[in-house]
Amino acid sequence: MSAPQEVEPTATTDLLPIPQPPAAPSTPVNPLAAHPPTASNDLQYDGTEQGQDSDEVDSAYAGSIIQSETSTLDSSILQYREENGRTYHAYGSTEHWGPNDEQAQDQQDLSHHFWTLVLGGDLYSAPIKDPQDVLDVGTGTGIWAIDVADMIPEAVVKGIDLSPIQPAWIPPNLKFEIDDYNKDWVDTNRYDLIHSREILGTVPDWVAFYKKAFNALRPGGWMDSTEPTIYLQSIHTPLEKDHPFVMWPTLFNEIGQKTGITFDVAPNMKKWMEEAGFVNVEEKILRVAVGKWPKDRKQKELGVWNQLRLDTGLRDFTERRMRNVLNWENDEILVLVAKCRSAVSNSKEGLYIDLYHVYGQKPEEKKA
Ligand SMILES: C[S@@+](CC[C@H](N)C(=O)[O-])C[C@H]1O[C@@H](n2cnc3c(N)ncnc32)[C@H](O)[C@@H]1O
């Protein structure tokens, strides 16, 4: 990676916006048409009262929350930006959309439990057992990296992020660095596994990003990326044009166009990895309910966690970009977020989302 913790005082690229009048999306898309069902798993609706009642969702949350502590960091990295009562990172060449305060950290840790459940307890999909040198880019609270370091004590694990929100008490084989994956990477031919998860809307050029990861991997090493689509759909019928989850991706696509940093990442990762030179690229699409509506018990559990992840995350995903890029007023943002939260809480809607797990390999060196 680039030299960690070297803070350039005003290195932040101004990705923010030419103010535009607040506007509802002019051409609502039908997400079902754009993204026809292709997931490997099937979801069936549970029409019973119990299946549709989502009151018990909160009680499902029992995840542990890591408290963050930092030490010996350049003080400018710790001078967070405050916007509208939330704090955001200070370091980096690009501006991340998400806050880094305790509320956001809790949401990330909760999401980690969800993502691990989705993979049946696995931490990644790439077919590599016991990687020895692992890099997690955009590590957030570092919870994935901590689990990997605990699972493979002989491995050396590194997590990098713009925000110093990782805990101080970590496994001895793990270290965290403040670093920016949108800058040049200095590591070459080093890692067995590079992992990224939920970094949509943060990478201006994904092929360039994957090329950097390619160079940083050893021959035979694997890149493993997990991203959700931005398109929620309903198992019953295509969503109506004025549904908040038709508006939501339309607005995010507008933000992507204005900033040059797309949120519509998941369906393109396979193509981008291949363009960057990876081989044996596989794409697994897992369809997961939002809420407890599925018949299947496992799918129901996933749906509950997915609902909780979205319910607690929708404001974090939305507010900075809507305000700074689309020039929306706070009240307008809160109304949209409230509508989206109401939709994810209504199991009768039968909402679901496709989650993409894509991995690819740097070719092995040819033997002479
Ligand atoms: C939604 S969080 C996901 C965290 C973690 N990957 C997970 O799944 O638990 C995205 C993270 O990417 C980080 N990030 C965004 N842009 C970055 C950049 N250019 N370099 C390093 N980290 C970045 C953010 O600070 C944030 O912690």
Shape: globular
Could you tell me the number of beta strands? Answer: 10
Largest sheet: 8 strands, mixed
Please tell me how large the radius of gyration is: 20 Å
CATH topology descriptor: Rossmann fold
H/E element sequence: HHHEEHEHEEEHEEHHEHHE
Question: Mean of residue pLDDT?
Answer: 85
Q: Can you tell me the CATH architecture? A: 3-Layer(aba) Sandwich
Enumerate the spans where pLDDT stays under 50 for 5 or more consecutive residues. 5-37, 54-71
Distance between the termini: 30 Å
Strand content: 15-25%
Query: What small molecules does the structure contain?
Result: S-adenosylmethionine
CATH hierarchy class name: Alpha Beta
Count of alpha and pi helical runs: 10
The helix-and-strand class reads: alpha/beta
- The CATH homologous superfamily is termed Vaccinia Virus protein VP39
**What helical percentage do the residues reach?**
25-40%
- How many domains make up the 3D coordinates? 1
Protein name: S-adenosyl-L-methionine-dependent methyltransferase
Keywords: Methyltransferase, Transferase
InterPro entries: SAM-dependent_MTases_sf (IPR029063)
Biased composition (Polar residues): 38-51
